[in-house]
C-alpha cells in the first residue's frame, strides 16, 4: 500500500500494495495487519483456539476461521460444534457489516455470572463469508481467549472484535489517531 497524507484534513489514505511508513515491520514469525487485504478475506485456521469464562470452557477448536482486513487484528470464528451453546444466551441486538451482513449478539455465562454481548455471529453471512454462517466469534476483552495457549488482547477501539497476539503487529485501527482509517 502507498500512503498519502491528503490536504483534506482527513488523515491518511491507502492505495497500492506497500505498507504505510508508520506500519510496524514484522519480525520473524509475525505478520503485519498492513499486509491484510481490503475487502477482507476468510482464511482457515488450524491453531488451537480456546475461549473460557472462569473455569468453564465456552469453546475450543482447531477448525476456526480468521477474517483478515487491512489495519485490523484477526477476528476468529469458531464452528458451532466447538461451542458450548448452553453458555450462550441470545440477546435482542444486532449490527450490520458491509461484507458479512447482519450480526446477532450473545451474552455468555458460566452459570454464576453473565457477560453482556461477549459473542456474536452472522446467521446468514454473505456469499464470500458463507463458511462462517452459524459460527461464533468472541470479544477477548470480556473473556479469556487464547491461541495455542497464548492470551489474546482486544483490538483497540472497544467495538472491534480482533484478537491481538505477539505474532501480529500494527498499528491497529481503533488506536488513538486512527478514526479516519
What would you say this structure looks like, in words?
The chain has 181 residues and is mainly beta. The chain folds into two domains: 1-35, no CATH class; 41-166, Metal Binding Protein, Guanine Nucleotide Exchange Factor, Chain A (Beta Complex). Helix content is 0%, strand content 43%. It has strands at 2-5, 12-15, 31-32, 41-45, 49-53, 56-61, 64-68, 75-78, 88-97, 101-109, 114-121, 136-138, 144-147, 150-151, 153-154, 163-164, 168-169. A seven-stranded antiparallel β-sheet has the order 4-7-8-12-11-10-9, with no helix packed on it. A four-stranded antiparallel β-sheet has the order 6-5-13-14, with no helix packed on it. The protein is globular. It starts with a strand and ends in a 12-residue tail after the last strand.
Q: What is the typical, i.e. mean, pLDDT?
A: 90
In terms of structural class, how would the helical and strand content be classed?
A: mainly beta
Spell out the CATH superfamily of the largest domain: Domain of unknown function (DUF427)
CATH class of the largest domain: Mainly Beta
User: What's the helix-strand series?
Assistant: EEEEEEEEEEEEEEEEE
Query: What is the count of structural domains?
Result: 2
Radius of gyration over C-alpha positions, nearest whole angstrom: 17 Å
Give the CA-CA distance, first to last residue: 13 Å
Low-confidence stretches: 1-11
Strand content: 35-45%
Treating each run of at least 4 consecutive H or I residues as one helix, how many helices?
Answer: 0
Tell me, what's the shape? globular
> Helicity range of the residues?
under 10%
